[in-house]
Design a protein that fits this description.
The chain is of the alpha/beta class and 186 residues long. It has five helices and five strands. A hairpin with an 8-residue loop joins strand 1 and strand 2. The chain starts with a helix and ends with a strand.
């Protein structure tokens, strides 16, 4: 009976930490108003606006939002890695727990593997976006969505740019167009 309770607690802690990691990942890609409150953008001060782009088909539409900050990409990558490292640390603790059963250890190992796969996918998508001529990009991959923050070309971010980025993300992650959010850094 105590083993069942301990297993439930371990699963609960693992689930809570993964939810926290997903939330932190999601929280770094918010609307410009929330980014202003967090001090991460000066888009409103510069007169930038939120731009909606995409096809008229809702399933094919994604949101393109304008943000700014010279070191935004570095800060975003750092925050992403810190959240992921914290989640992996907790999962590794479960793996090393002598009292944990094999199922718990297998689940923790699978979740660590998924986090590592997501990290590789994010790096690959970022590299492919840069290879297409964009100055910088940071990507957040989760089971529910893919968020892309991109440094736009000097001519501005057009629908064709959104299509290029969407194609890369869909090809590399298997995500559907309605799961992709593109945020333009000003």
């Amino acid at each position: 009976m105590a083993t069942v309770k301990k297993r439930g607690v371990v699963y609960g802690v693992i689930g809570a930490m993964l939810c926290a990691a997903v939330y932190l990942n999601w929280s770094y890609v918010q609307s410009p108003e929330e980014l202003l409150v967090a001090g991460q953008t000066d888009a409103e001060l510069n007169g930038a606006s939120v731009v909606q782009s995409g096809s008229t088909d809702d399933a094919q539409a994604e949101q393109v939002t304008v943000t700014s900050g010279s070191d935004y990409f570095a800060q975003s990558r750092l925050a992403r890695e810190q959240a992921r490292d914290e989640a992996i640390s907790i999962l590794q603790t479960s793996l090393q727990d002598e009292k944990a059963d094999e199922k718990t250890k297998e689940d923790a190992a699978g979740q660590i593997s998924q986090l590592a796969d997501d990290s590789v996918t994010e790096a690959r998508v970022e590299s492919l976006i840069k290879a297409k001529g964009y100055a910088d990009a940071v990507v957040f991959v989760s089971a529910e969505a893919v968020n892309v923050i991109i440094q736009p070309p000097e001519a501005g971010f057009a629908e064709q740019d959104a299509a290029v980025v969407r194609d890369i993300v869909m090809t590399e992650t298997g995500a559907q167009a309605d799961q992709i959010k593109i945020v333009e850094a000003a």
